[in-house]
Amino acid sequence: MNKELLLALEMIEKEKNISKAVLLEAIENSLLTACKNHFGKADNIKVNINPDTGDFSVFAEKEVVETVEDPLTQICVEEAKLKNPRYIPGDIVPIPVQSKEFGRIATQNAKNVILQKIREEERKELYNDYYSKEKDIITGIVQKNLGRNISINLGKLDAILNESEQVKGEVLKPNDHIKVYILEVKDTSKGPRVSVSRTHPDLVKRLFESEVAEVKDGTVEIKAIAREAGSRTKIAVWSNDINVDPVGACVGMNGARVNAVVNELHGEKIDIINWDDNAAYLIENALSPAKVICVVADEEEKEALVIVPDYQLSLAIGKEGQNARLAARLTGYKIDIKSETQAKEQGLFEELGIEYQEDMVDYNYQEDEEFLAGIQEEDDEEYQEDGTDKAYPEDEHEEHSQEEGYQEDGFSEEEAMPEE
Fold first, then answer.
1. Which residues does 357 contact at the CB level (< 8 Å), separation at least 6?
2. Which fold has domain 281-399?
3. Which helix (H) or strand (E) holds 193?
4. Domain 200-275 has what CATH class?
């Protein structure tokens, strides 16, 4: 029986990842519970279990007295001397308890104690396992819709993808394999409850860590992320090694690395720019693929004035203000974008002390007559990041500019964007 007990404990240890020591403790507590149910109390009951052989013994510690008042905790001198002649009043005598004599109810209660302990340890192990993965990504399988929420199987348990954490327009079907970001793991009476997300900006960061070795080992750092889930993401990267190009490392050969992330996000566009400690240069990079004439940043007020060529205004603002909005979130600056014509009319060049010349920016747009023909005149359109949604003219030429292959950081926009 002892051998069978050890084999059973080893099997439970492997299947449920519960240590043998915890199981032996559960058996010990179950025997104490059985004694309490059988005798009425178990204050003086001791249990010894040999973890190597599985042998166990249960005994009651009784005090040697002249007159027995409580037979459960006391033993008379004459009876004690039968066990050992050296016993005298006041000594403690261990009296073996035969567990086979326990009644059915006591035995059932002992069984329930063991099962309850196993369930508690199983939940605890499961919680610790997923708690260690909090703020990380994990692959899950879409199970079913729970109203507007979605159940995602993570292997050992199901997580909840709330409606607020779902990407608008993304269709998830049962049995689809997707990567999700673990937002929070709660320990409840019914077991761990895991909340996951597909919209969190750190999902993009973790995906790049899994695809780009330089990001995973810390050679390349992702300094900032601004994301509008399902549409576009901008990330700013920095290299701790002068021999490693951070943007190139994230893009990969022929865009292989960034495309792997884009495919996982079902076509979400990703702009990768160089981080710069100089706020003006950072804002200029963040507004790419638009070209910039000048940037004036106020570090105290966290505001910036950006002047762009007329034909780049629409591209700098982006469709419905998305490009400027993401740039503002990425840099943490409130950005006011003005065209070259607006700046001249308002005398901003003179006010800022900039010696402006007509040829200070290489326009190069004469090389593309079709591009020039499609440019719309902007009616003093300004963008001010104030946290509200503003309507901007449809940028009909943003796609055309991307096709030109322009990217501020030296790689094609096509390499960083999926084909539309």
1. none
2. GMP Synthetase; Chain A, domain 3 (3.30.300)
3. strand 191-197
4. alpha beta
CATH code at 135-197: 2.40.50.140
Amino acid at the residue 109 = N
Residue 347 CB partners (closer than 8 Å, separation 6+)? none
Listed in sequence order, the residues at least 6 apart from 89 whose beta carbon sits closer than 8 Å to its beta carbon are 64, 65, 66, 77
Tokens of 20: 């043998």
| CATH H superfamily, domain 2-117 | NusA, N-terminal domain (3.30.1480.10)
Pairing relation of β-strands 149-153 and 137-146?
antiparallel
**3-class DSSP assignment, residue 71:** coil
| Cα 64 from Cα 250, distance rounded (Å) | 80
- Type of residue at 274: N
pLDDT value at 284 more than 80: yes
pLDDT, tens digit, for every residue of 189-245?
888 999 999 999 999 999 999 999 999 999 999 999 999 999 999 999 999 999 999
Tokens representing residue 51 in the block: 């973890």
How far does Cα 243 stand from its chain's mean position?
31
316 by DSSP, 3-state: which?
helix
Exposure class string for 187-208: b at 16+ Cβ within 10 A, else e: eeeebbbbbbbbbbbbbbbbbb
Structure tokens of 355? 């010696």
